[in-house]
Amino acid sequence: MRTLLLLSTVAILSAWAVKCKYDGQDLDNNQIIVVQNAFRIKCLTEDNGSWKTEIIGCVTPDGTEIDAGQKKEHGDKIHECVKSESGQVSLKESKGRMAACPGGQQNGEEWQEKSFKFRCGDGGVVKFIACVGQDGSVINAGETGKIGGFDVKCEQHANGTITMQAANDPKSYECKAKDGSMKKNGQEYVEGNFVRKCGDYGQGKIIGCFADNVGSTIGVNQNVTHGDVIYSCAKDGANYSFKTYSLKAN
């Protein structure tokens, strides 16, 4: 907020004065001048020869006149002409309702930063409005919704920190196997030639491979020989593979 100040009204009594004097100027009765490019001064004379100059208002940088005690909004700024009981006048400038936000966004404009959505509110104030999942799911601020099938809470805390986190204990979720059965957190289960372990948020992660003739799980990127067959469990990037090789001569 920007503020300009001007001292209170000056009053002088003189038997010969018929004009006001202000900063070296002679002013006629009711004449108004602008000083400091911000304040309007009026000359008032009396029949008894007394005179005074009175601050009657302010002038904004764009030339708009505002009476003392009033305010006007123009564009993205609010200007207020404040007069105290002691006569001191100040011109105060603040953001108007349509002011842009710090990032240049206009009033009412919405945008996304990473997983969070914001709106430019009145007075150029940034408002947090929602969380966004990788799948495009939107949860309004202060609410709980589903992202990827999980309950997620979108929240802005008193200190301004924004979080998007599981509404429930990550270990409380079960995993759904391909055969439709449900597995508890930490439980291992077989799907085809792969062994999975139910992890947090109900995510079944591959931890190895399965072969009928091998009594235990074949670890990822490990080979196990049983009889004349080599069983190979491998991971390449995000892909897993299970292969067998015969040791018998062709």
Automatic annotation (TrEMBL):
- Ranges for domain Abnormal cell migration protein 18-like fibronectin type I: 18-88, 106-161, 175-239
Pfam families registered for this protein in UniProt: Fn1_2 (PF23003)
Alphabetically sorted, this entry's keywords are: Signal
Signal sequence extent? 1-17
Q: Which InterPro entries match?
A: Mig-18-like (IPR040282), Mig18_Fn1 (IPR055119)
Designated name of the protein: Abnormal cell migration protein 18-like fibronectin type I domain-containing protein
Q: What is the scientific name of the source organism?
A: Caenorhabditis nigoni
